Amino acid sequence: MTRFLVVPQWQGSPAARAMHLIDGAEAIAGDLPRGATVRVEVPVEAGESLGTGIRRFSALSRVREAVADALATNPAEPAIVVGGDCGVAIPAIAHAAARHENLAVVWFDAHGDLHSPESSPSGAFAGMALRAVFTEFALPGTGTVPAERVVLAGAREFDDGERESAVSSGLTLIDADDLADPTGLADAVASTGATALYLHVDLDVLDPAAIAGLGLPVPFGLSLDDLVGAIKAVRARVPLVGASISGFAPASAAAAVDDLGTILRVVGALA
Q: What is the pTM of this model?
């Protein structure tokens, strides 16, 4: 049985609507099976960087520990982490990597998320989250999967240096247009030699026409059918052992309802 960890973390986001991520996580939680859903407490305060170059580092560290503890309560049971910002994926990926030696990570996102604390213009951890999968930062649980087993899918907005970092790191890039044929993603993951798979979906990978409640929307994204098709195709090739979904920042409770049908189709594909 799949379990759900709801983690309404907002401290990693650079978006002006970051606090709306709390509402987004809670809106999704309302449609999840109650008996299989656990809420992870997130600090109210923003937190301090503590000299790390990562904005709100102290709060992010507390959430990371809480997510790791929640996953450890039943480590063999598959879990989907529901954010919040995309930093919630990092402890879940670390948990999966500790249990599966040849783990691959597919990261669906409109943005590169490839900054380091030194290169980030904002210090926001969400903009570093994918790099934290294969690079060790001050935050524990980072750098757990080599870049050669990481696929960034659907990204179409990169800050200065991020695309160069993607190429030099050795990760695989798959453009949004190429995901219309789901076999390309499945082939890319299979070619890494992975025997287990973690999927992360930042909802801004979708085109803004498909979902309104995004803090940082980027045009020319995936259709819902293309995203669901890509998830199903790669799951058919490599066993899924963990997943996360993030980035839902509805403007209001009424607006959240309008997007939940779309989001639940994504959750269903992951579960």
A: 0.97
